[in-house]
Recover the amino acids of this structure.
């Protein structure tokens, strides 16, 4: 957004961001983080990926010259200096060399960007996933999403969901937003969830406008403005997803109505669309009996979708949305991660503890605060680089003792 559609500002902002983040962590990890971001920017702006990928890679390489911890060789050299009795580097010793190199790299990329590949080719090796918008058009979901707030005088306040017959009026409660300490928390509703005044309900309404107005008057709710560019709750794509599934011949759901299938109870997912061949079944969806080959559009929390994908035997998953690639595994932990990063940098800058201890402390804090899990931590290790460094240390020692160096 800050680039304002300018390719020049976009390139400069990208290189500065990559170099800045790469000065605090592995350049390989930074590139892995930014690749999907760059691809999404290119898709949204129509920019050729080659115009941004090379500058991103160059900035990641230069980032190793910005701080002591930006790259492993800096730490190895510093440790060897200290071991030999010399004064080691401080955190910003290399920054005076790195900043001019970064400025030169940005300028060089601006001057030579005309030589970078400018063609945009659609990938043929992998079928493109449908988007939320395409799902909404395919299943005719337009106008069905509603956002309402429970008023203090609402009869819904203080009631559990199993005491409120919303589905009988053609209404599905997809999720609810509840004011938290710093932001609106999104809550997965179940039969025991108690509604409170101020709760924001995300509703899928299949009824007419008259019935919707009746709902507002009867239950004491205020209608809120929808966001997400008019696409079915797409502003909550980090939490809520969609998935398309088909009913196979051996499914136990055959002959049952959508209501009798109890998908919400068994999986936490809500059926919001049904197609039979090329026809969309919109009216009386809950009473429609399922047949072989019917395709269902389900919505719910991503964790429920992933669990359903692994455990379901009565439906076969067809398509996951393209938005799945943009989901952050721990988006709500960003403040904690930034605080830990600031703490580690401060410990290194002021030399409170050795650099290795500061980094280890930061890793432990990230784990304790659940910013990263053990599986992700193991996957992030660059084993070839680690084995190479460990393997070369005896070789270096042998050269030193035999007079080779």
């Amino acid at each position: 957004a800050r680039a304002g559609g300018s390719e020049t500002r976009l390139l400069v902002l990208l290189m500065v961001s990559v170099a800045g983040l790469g000065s605090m962590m592995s350049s390989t990890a930074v590139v892995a983080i930014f690749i999907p971001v760059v691809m999404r920017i290119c898709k949204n702006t129509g920019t050729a990926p080659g115009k941004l990928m090379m500058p991103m890679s160059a900035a990641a390489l230069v980032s190793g010259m910005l701080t002591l911890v930006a790259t492993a060789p800096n730490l190895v050299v510093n440790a060897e200096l200290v071991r030999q009795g010399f004064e080691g580097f401080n955190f910003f010793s290399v920054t005076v060399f790195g900043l001019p190199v970064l400025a030169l790299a940005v300028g060089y990329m601006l001057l030579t960007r005309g030589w970078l590949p400018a063609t945009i080719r659609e990938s043929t090796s992998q079928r493109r996933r449908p988007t939320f918008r395409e799902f909404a058009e395919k299943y005719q979901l337009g106008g069905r999403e509603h956002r309402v707030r429970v008023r203090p005088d609402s009869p819904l306040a203080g009631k559990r969901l199993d005491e409120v017959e919303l589905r009988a009026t053609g209404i599905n409660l997809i999720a609810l937003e509840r004011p938290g300490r710093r932001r609106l928390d999104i809550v997965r509703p179940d039969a025991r969830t108690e509604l409170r005044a101020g709760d924001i309900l995300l509703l899928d309404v299949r009824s007419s406008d008259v019935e919707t107005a009746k709902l507002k008057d009867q239950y004491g709710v205020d209608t809120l403005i929808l966001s997400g560019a008019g696409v079915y709750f797409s502003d909550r794509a980090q939490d809520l997803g969609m998935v398309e599934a088909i009913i196979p011949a051996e499914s136990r759901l055959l002959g049952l109505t959508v209501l009798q299938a109890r998908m919400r109870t068994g999986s936490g997912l809500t059926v919001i669309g049904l197609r039979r061949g090329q026809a969309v079944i919109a009216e009386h969806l809950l009473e429609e009996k399922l047949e072989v080959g019917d395709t269902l559009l389900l919505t719910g929390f991503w964790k429920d979708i992933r669990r359903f994908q692994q455990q379901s035997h009565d439906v076969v998953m067809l398509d996951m949305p393209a938005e799945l690639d943009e989901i952050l595994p721990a988006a709500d932990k960003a403040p904690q991660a930034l605080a830990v990063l600031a703490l580690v940098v401060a410990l290194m800058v002021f030399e409170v503890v050795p650099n290795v201890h500061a980094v280890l402390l930061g890793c432990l804090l990230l784990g304790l605060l659940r910013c990263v899990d053990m599986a992700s931590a193991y996957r992030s290790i660059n084993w070839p680089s680690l084995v190479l460094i460990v393997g070369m240390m005896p070789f270096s020692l042998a050269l030193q003792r035999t007079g080779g160096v």
Observations:
- The mean pLDDT is 83.
- The longest strand covers residues 171-179.
